[in-house]
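Support reply, case 0932

Customer input (verbatim):
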Amino acid sequence: MLLLAAILMFSLSACSDDNVVAQQPKTYKMSGFAKGADVSWLTQMETSGYKFYNAKGTETECMHLMRDLGFNSIRLRVWVNPTDGWCNKQDVLVKALRARRLGMRLMIDFHYSDSWADPSQQTIPAEWKNYSLDEMCQAVANHTKDVLQTLKDNGIDSVEWVQTGNETRTGMLWEVGRASGGNTANFSKLVNAGYDAAKSVYPATKVIVHIDQGNVLSHYTWLFDGMKSDGAKWDVIGMSLYPTESNWQQATTDCLNNVTTLKQRYGTDVMICEVGAPYDATWAPDFLKLMVDGAKQNAACLGVFYWEPECYGGWQGYANGAFDTSGKPTAALDAFKD
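Our regenerated output:
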């Protein structure tokens, strides 16, 4: 009887221990190498009825799902006065609060436009249309400080990275801030206005100057050589890379090599601010693994951000998301798991 009682007590104890283990909350690594997702479309997608599911088909809030997939950072774009309201200051605040409540780190990407800014379009906000260079610098400073101060006033104690412009290989705020033909002076003044404003709110933030085609070194050297001569200020060089089926291996290798070269040339770290591949590309998982693993192994690279991975089902005609047509993550995102 004593032996039976002892066995029963041991069994109960073991079950109790198992329950304790089972009830332990999952831990997430939220520091170190940045594994990021730009989910700026999220609130708009949710309002349009889009839902998100884990691999088992269980409906899951998108940012929780991102965290469970290994992401520790969120990037959010901000437009000055977008006509539909999405990605304005208040929309950014809503998403930033959601991210911070999950312990996610934040990158705020200032486009300094009312809509998309990239090498083919850097359109001055309507309210700034007739500004001189000095007035434009002040507008950049005011807008940057206003958005970041709003985040800070609402309890967001840290924005780890701030982009002063989006894919600015050709400058920004055209024509005043166009960078071409070796002329980067006005662009550099605008960058400095954003840099100083960001630091005035979050002194520890790292300011990023971000351009596209991370596999093409010459795009970077001409711009940053000019900016260095101008006395421009930045903490991090940001890259984008969107390879194709025919070039993804070489483009990724070149991009990673350029990280090292840029660190040696300018003494600043590099962030891969945007990557993407077609959601149904058979090569996408291999591309992301090569990129993320290679970036982790390079001390000069601070992290990798996937651009709008949550997109699916033909959203806005964008096919480079990393969710399948049923709203579940594809194997491409396995690269971000620990």
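We compared this against your earlier run and they match. Two observations from our side: Residues 98 and 298 are 31 Å apart (CA to CA). Residues 1-21 have pLDDT under 50 and may be disordered. Please reopen the case if you see a mismatch on your end.
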